[in-house]
Amino acid sequence: MATANQLQPTQQDFEARVDILRRLEFLIREIDVCKGLAIKPFGSFLSNLYTPWGDLDITLMPLEPAPLSRSKKTKILKSIHDALLQAGGAIRVQVLFRPRVPLLMFEDAWWRISCDISVSNTDAVFKSHALGLIVGMDLRCRQLIFLVKCWAKAQCINDPKMGTLNSYALSLLVIFHLQTRNPPILPPLSAIIGQGGASADGFHYLNRIAEFTERGFGKGNTSSVAELFVSFFGQFSAVEELWIQGLAVCTFRGQWGDKTTTDPAWASKNYALLVEDPFDLSENCSRSVHQGSLQHVCKAFRLTHELLCDKFSYWFLGKLKETLFRWPHASPRPCFHPSRPGIEQLREHVSLNASRKNDRPEKQKKGKKQVKQ
């Protein structure tokens, strides 16, 4: 709990993102092709799950709902690209013509925050808003998601561009973990989303959530955030060998799935990891993960669980926090060996000291015998 509080973004982190949105709003007013569009944040900032170093996801939404062609979206992003370069204040500006969603990426030169801009990304805005409502059902959910995201960032497994997990998939893993506790802390999302999916409105979710809250759903489970943090890694490290067999995380039903219960189209795509999108069951939220990066992800889960379950780890509490969360978050990435990740080095460091501790009584006994002789 204390760790989660100390890693929380500050008021300045919030104001920095608001400042970027304000300056972008001012910028697009001067661009003809952007007339009739409004700046809308989405992702972790809208869900209130952002970390101090998290990216800022932005989309340009038409003030009057109307379909925009891919060529139109690309033209808009190119115009903003040119305007950013001319105005200054942005570095590493580039447009990515991705198959799914064209994207403009840049880093704000003042606040050093990475930003991704898309156009008319309605579903993403909706999912972000709905996710914020769902995780608000239990305070432990928001805290656990935050800790897991900080951990994943420190272990370099929270970057879909590098073949690892995106923040949305990480959030769904946490929700699934809370759904599968005994007793459950969160209900299957089908009970909240219903069959409306992304077409339902916010009031629909609020009413469903209010019903569960009034019934005291999840209150019967008294596990602390710390206990849930440990069991989270235990649950997913235990199934490491099953991902290749098609094991799937299904928060819509709140239970494990497989190739027979998920979208049949997935079978031909050879996904390494399956995390079903509860708002669109045809979408795999972890599609960015490939076989090579999956090994890295699984190893991070496994070593973290071993560390958390080893009582000797807590002798090095400062190192443990530093390694798990890059503690404090402004410090350089920890590494005990230049060629291997910090978490692996700490695991070996703890094991070595534990073995020395266990050997010490035997040596002391031998020493006493020699003195008597």
UniProtKB/TrEMBL annotation:
Name this protein carries in UniProt: Poly(A) RNA polymerase mitochondrial-like central palm domain-containing protein
InterPro entries assigned: MTPAP-like_central, NT_sf
MF terms (GO), sorted A to Z: nucleotidyltransferase activity
Gene3D superfamilies linked: 1.10.1410.10, Beta Polymerase, domain 2 (3.30.460.10)
Listed Basic and acidic residues bias regions: 347-364
Top-rank taxon, per record: Eukaryota
A biological-process GO annotation: RNA 3'-end processing
Disordered: annotated segments: 347-373
CDD domains: NT_PAP_TUTase (cd05402)
Residue stretches making up the Poly(A) RNA polymerase mitochondrial-like central palm domain: 4-131
